Amino acid sequence: MVQVTISASGRKSSLASDLPVVLDIPAGLDSATVEDVKAAFAAKQKLTLKDEKKSLADDTTLQNAGFVDGGELQIKDLGPQISWRTVFIVEYVGPLIIHPLMYHFPKVFYGGSVQHSLLQHYVYAMVMLHFFKREFETVFVHRFSHGTMPFAYIFRNSAHYHLLGGLGLAYAVYSPTYSSSSPYIRGTIRDDPKFLWACTAIWLFCELSNLKTHVILRNLRPVGTKKRAIPYGYGFNLVSTPNYFFEIVGWIVVCLMTGSYASWVFTATGIYFMGTWAMKKHRNYKKEFGKEYPRRKIMIPFIF
Q1: What mean pLDDT value characterizes the chain?
Q2: Do 70 and 3 contact (CB within 8 A), yes or no?
Q3: How is it placed in the membrane, per its record (predicted)?
Q4: Rounded distance, CA 121 to CA 138, Å?
C-alpha cells in the first residue's frame, strides 16, 4: 500500500474545495499508477507532481514518476470532459453535412443552378466516402489511449474539418467554376474520364491502405488495455506513421484533380498537424522501446 496526498493546483473550483486529501492506494509504489490514483479520487483530471506543470500519463507508475510514499500530488480541474470517440465523431460529421448541402442545393449558396461536371461528381463521392470511412473507424476500429479531453477543445479540434474541409472545400469545388460548362473544366484533363479514373484508383489505394494501418494499430492493443507495441508491416517498416502518409497522399490527389486553393489550404494544414503528431509518436516510440525500435523515417518514406 502507498499513501498519496492530493492537493489543488491552479485555479480554485468545486473539485478542489475539499482538498488536500490523503488517499491509500492498495498497491505498491512500483506497481501503483496515476490511473489508480485517479480512480481512488474518482476524478478524470490532470495530475502532476507537486510544484511541476507536466501532467502524468495514466499508465505511469508512481515510482517511475519520482513519487515517494507519503508524498504529494497536485490535481488541476480541467472542467467538463468529453470522450475522444465523441470528439472524432463530431469532427467528421461536419463535412458529411456541409458537402451534401452545397452539392445538392447550389441555388442557396451560388444564387443559381450548377450543372455538375464529372470532376465534381468524383470529388463529392471521394469526400463523402472518406469521412464515412473515418466515422466507421472511430466507432469500430480505433482504441483510444486517453479516455477524455476538456469539452472546450471540441470547438478547436472541429474547426479544421468543419471550416476548411467542410465550408471552404465544398464552396470552392461545387461552385460554377468547376461546372460542366466552365472553361476551367471543359476540354481539359479535368474532364477526361481516364485522368479521373487514374486519380480515383490512387486515392482508393490510399484510403484502403490507411484503413489497413489503423487495423494493424488496433490489433497491437488488446481490448481494455493501454498496452503499446512496435508496429510492423505494411508501411510501418518504412515510417512510424504510415497512416498519416497515406492520408496525405489521398488528399494531394484531390488537390491535383481540382487545382483548388481551398483543397491545398486544407491539405497543407492537415500536413502540418499530422507532421506534428507524427514527430511526437516517433519520439514516444523511441523513448519507450529504446534500441528495440527499428530505424525508420517519421512520416514520409526515405525523406522525413
Answers
A1: 86
A2: yes
A3: Multi-pass membrane protein
A4: 26
